[in-house]
Amino acid sequence: MPVDFSGTWNLVCSDNFEGYMLALGIDFATRKIAKRLKPQKVIEQEGDSFSIQTTSAFRSYFVQFKIGEEFEEDNKGLDHRKCKTVVTWDNDKLVCVQTGDKKNRGWTHWIEGDQLYLELCCEEQVCTQIYKRA
Ligand code: ECB
């Protein structure tokens, strides 16, 4: 059985979100608000189909995809840069590559114990976040 990421997850800690946002060119005022947020993720996983809704008091973001199928991602409400995005399995990790103007952009999700991990990468920056089930 593959891992099941489905559920509602609340952010409990975040490291270097500031560096990640700087790499994406997010302005000072937006970063100041964004770094205080405690987003919630609702993940739905059915076979190879996923949806991830990230909600916060300030901005929210929704993405859906099928494993191995490239799609155009708009990053609406985030940095707005369009990417060619593909998500694949690396053993039990969900690995997303976002090809576009920014080098080394993407994210990885995995579960350890009852915690959901998210590593966000852009250029030289890595942000690590931990979520717990709501
Ligand atoms: C959507 C909640 C965070 C809102 C932050 C608001 C403003 C900051 C603007 C740009 C910063 C760039 C990205 C925001 C970081 C997190 C939101 C989406 C993270 C992500 O890629 O989640 C993936 C994996 O779960 C699914 O979209």
Please give a structural write-up.
It is a single chain. With 134 residues, the protein is mostly beta strands. It has helices at 17-23, 28-34; strands spanning 7-15, 40-46, 49-55, 61-66, 71-73, 83-90, 93-99, 106-112, 115-122, 125-133. A ten-stranded antiparallel β-sheet has the order 4-3-2-1-10-9-8-7-6-5. Strand 9 (115-122) and strand 10 (125-133) form a beta hairpin. The chain is globular. The two termini are 23 Å apart. The mean pLDDT is 97. Bound molecules: ligand ECB.
Question: What's the arrangement of secondary structure elements?
Answer:
Layout: E1 7-15, H1 17-23, H2 28-34, E2 40-46, E3 49-55, E4 61-66, E5 71-73, E6 83-90, E7 93-99, E8 106-112, E9 115-122, E10 125-133
Antiparallel strand pairs: 1-2, 1-10, 2-3, 3-4, 5-6, 6-7, 7-8, 8-9, 9-10
This protein binds ligand ECB.
Shape: globular
Termini, distance in Å? 23 Å
- The proportion of residues forming helix, as a percent range, comes to 10-25%
**Helical stretch tally:** 2
Given helix and strand content, the structural type is mainly beta
The percentage of residues in β strands lies in over 45%
The overall average pLDDT, rounded, is 97
Question: Biggest β-sheet, characterized?
Answer: 10 strands, antiparallel
- Strand tally is 10
> How do the strands of the widest beta sheet line up side by side?
4-3-2-1-10-9-8-7-6-5
Pick out the low-confidence regions.
Answer: none
| Small molecules bound in the structure, each named once | ligand ECB
Q: Please state the CA-atom Rg, rounded to the nearest Å.
A: 14 Å
What pattern of helices and strands is seen along the backbone? EHHEEEEEEEEE
